[in-house]
Amino acid sequence: MRTGSDTGFGLVELLFAMVIFTIIATAVAYGLQSALNTTGQNRMRVQGANLASREMEIVRHEFSSSPTGPQDLSATATAVNPHPLSGASAPMKIDGVPFTVTRTVEWLPAGPGSSPCDGGSAVTYPVLAVNVKVTWDRMGSTQPVESNTILTPPKGNVSGTISFVAVKVIDAGGIGEGNMPVTLAGGSFTATRPTADDGCAVFPVSPASYPFSYTATVTKSGYSDPNGNASATRSVAVASGGSFVIPAPISYDLAGSLSLTMALNASDVTAGYKPPTTLPPLTIYNPGITGSAQTRTIASTGATTTIPGLWPYSSGYESWPGTCNTASTSHPAGVVVPPGGSASATHRLVPVTVRVTLLGVNQVNASVVAYPLTATGCSAAENPLVLGVTNTSGQLKTSVLTGSWRFQVVGGTAPSAGWPVLTGVTRTTTAQTVNVQMGT
Known about the structure:
Layout: H1 11-64, H2 69-74, E1 78-80, E2 92-94, E3 97-108, E4 127-136, E5 145-151, H3 155-159, E6 163-170, E7 181-186, E8 189-194, E9 200-205, E10 212-219, E11 223-224, E12 231-238, E13 244-245, E14 250-251, E15 253-254, E16 256-263, H4 266-270, E17 282-285, E18 295-298, E19 304-310, E20 318-321, E21 342-348, E22 350-358, E23 361-362, E24 366-372, E25 385-389, E26 395-400, E27 405-412, E28 427-428, E29 433-438
Parallel strand pairs: 6-13, 6-14, 16-21, 22-29
Antiparallel strand pairs: 1-3, 2-3, 3-4, 4-5, 6-9, 7-8, 7-10, 10-12, 11-15, 16-19, 17-18, 17-20, 22-23, 22-26, 24-25, 24-27, 27-28
């Protein structure tokens, strides 16, 4: 039994009390810190709201201060810190905290359609939508401060000489693409605006005389139009002042690439067959490609040729080696090239053994070529197709494209008597071995 002088906390009780005190102190400290953070963020939001209100008042003044105010304001779609605080530079600082004010303007239709580019002929008097967003350093999970308004120009400002051109940029699926840089140019007028989220960019224009023609161009790295062009254009005609012109949308999407390989089967390579000395060009086809043939021809760069800058047609690209109309009796199914992605296809070469004789004697180093039976549309790179030279046995293990060919000796190490005048006794390939007999 303890005496009175021994009463008090034991070691276990003391440790337990310290743990409880630590938990309570930590909770209190966290609560205080959270309260301080909340108070600080609330103060930042109040400062941000003041900056947003300040920017919006300046915008309203600029918009209505002159007849060209709406046009001047909309000339820049997005502006960052357009009106810095007195004596300050971007980003603006308040109490040592940097703030960023981002102002975005977009012309909206006064008619049906969710976009100025979709309103059609009903769009005759557009209004200007203004969004001001304020952000600051170390926001954490706090949302930016935003302010929005709609500004309507005085009637006389729009119904006079000022017209509007609404250019829409759509992807391969027909969906509007945002943040695409569109340039409208004509005469001395040039302006560039990014498209809004709906893919629409609106330009106010006021040419000295009507009608007037403009060209809308969109260019962005890694993108292409349906014909594989890095830039897409659209002609725009403005007939009169006070009009709202909506040309056909511009199709523009992330480009893909297609790698095409011309190769023999592995077993043929093991048997000693080789590709032709010169590989033919490659042809790709899609009904959407401009031109009567709806094809593109690409020079071969080796066994594998990569074709960049391709529009991502949902039906894909049919492809075949060569350019002759009869170079391939059937084409493989279209290979789909995804936007910004890649695809591949392999075309097999047909192994052929060519044996060259002159009056029954095997000919060494005889140069052999192959001509397509029907040369319509053939390029010089495959008419003839250079196959190679014969070996010491008078043979050449080579390959050709699928189709019908005739083989001919065009030179090499001539016999002592020289090559006969008749060098064109040729044979059509219907089997893997072709005998080319020189002389009669």
